[in-house]
Amino acid sequence: MKADIAYQLHYRTVRPLVCDVHGRGGVSRKAFRAVCAARAHFADWTNGRGSRPAVATLQAITGLSKAVIQRATRLMRALGLATEIMRGRQRTYRERMASWRVRDKGRGWASVWALHPPRNPQVNQLKERLDPRPNKSVTPHPRRGPFRALSHERFHSLEHDTGSACEEKRRAPRDSTDERAGSKRKHRAVDPQAVKLAAHWLSDPQTPRWAHRHSAKGWAPLLTAPAAHNWVSADINQLIRDYRGITGHWIATDPHHPIKLLAGILKWHGKDNLDDRPAAAILAQEAEAAARRRAINECDRCSEYGWELDPTSGLEREPVARCSHIHHIHA
User: Fold this and answer.
1) 209: domain range?
2) pTM, whole model, 2 decimals?
3) Which of 119, 135, 151 is the last residue of a domain?
4) Which of 135, 170, 201 is the last residue of a domain?
5) Per-residue pLDDT at 123
6) What pLDDT score was predicted for residue 12?
7) Does some domain include residue 130?
8) 117 lies in a domain?
9) E strands within 101-195?
10) For the stretch 1-26, what's the b/e string if a residue is b when 16 or more beta carbons lie within 10 angstroms of its beta carbon?
11) For the range 172-180, what are the long-range contacts, defined as Cβ-Cβ under 8 Å and sequence gap of 24 or more?
């Protein structure tokens, strides 16, 4: 209905955008309505998107010529009834060969259009005055059950609002708001230790980027068993490196299911083998090196490399000897 109103109000204004340079050509009201209905037939009735019929298909449905359909399409765009999301084009040679292998003889791709009501308050006001139905006088068809609207009887976006321009709010899908408020989603309890491990893992700079697609609570159910065995973030990252290096499996930079990927890696490590932390030896070596460096820094009788110094010259002794830092411990 809004498409018809927009045609009557603004056709004389936008007609130069449809005609040629000599002012020839135009679109009648009947042809315009036929093209709008035909394009709306191929669109998603909930939002008006995905309408991509070919011109030959519209010719077979409406019985109009190719030039009239093209002018009507330009008129829809000029009136604000359609937006061209992706422009059609001819297929390349490789695309035609690939299409012919699946018995598709088409030589081009049709344009993709999104249909929507015109964003014009004058059209909306006139529709409210011309609409004989009072507000809330008609019960909508249910979307489920034996009395649901059939697919071929559903409304199109050209007849009803589907966006923010609609002044009337849609009815809630549930019959009672009290039931919706009373029903609470049941969340599964998560282990706080697993949440802490997941948070530390996500804050680790060595963690892969795909891990940040889920929150710490999202990773917690999977990391409950490792957290119970005192795993740290370095163990998870080392396990991923071991899995990639030992098995030779390729890990995508952006996997489709990150949680399933890590679950498979943990399964490869073994549920009964969680006591064997992947980074335990590396962390022990790092702790030993840090303790050795700290002892060298606190000792005044050895060089920066841990060799004993000669008290008289202040240089390393000959032959060199490793400092035991015992005097520092007794002090």
Assistant:
1) 192-273
2) 0.40
3) 135
4) 135
5) 63
6) 80
7) yes
8) yes
9) 108-109, 112-115
10) ebbbbbbeebbeebbeebeeeeeeee
11) 173/143
Do 269 and 284 lie in a common domain? no
Torsion of CA 90, 94, 97, 103, to 10 degrees: -60
For the chain, the domain total comes to 3
Evaluate whether residue 26 is within a structural domain: yes
Of 291, 200, 209, 299, whose CA–CA distance to 254 is shortest? 209
Q: Within a domain: residue 92? A: yes
pLDDT at 319: 76
Residue 208's pLDDT is what? Answer: 92
Residues 206 and 307 both lie in one domain: no
DSSP characters over 264-307: HHHHHH-GGGTTS-TTHHHHHHHHHHHHHHHHHHH-SSB-TTSB
**What per-residue confidence (pLDDT) applies to 159?**
44
pLDDT of residue 158: 45
The letter for the amino acid at 313 is S
Low-confidence stretches of the chain (pLDDT < 70) are 1, 120-188, 314, 325-331
The whole-angstrom separation of Cα 101 and Cα 159 is: 40
CA distance 282 to 5: 75
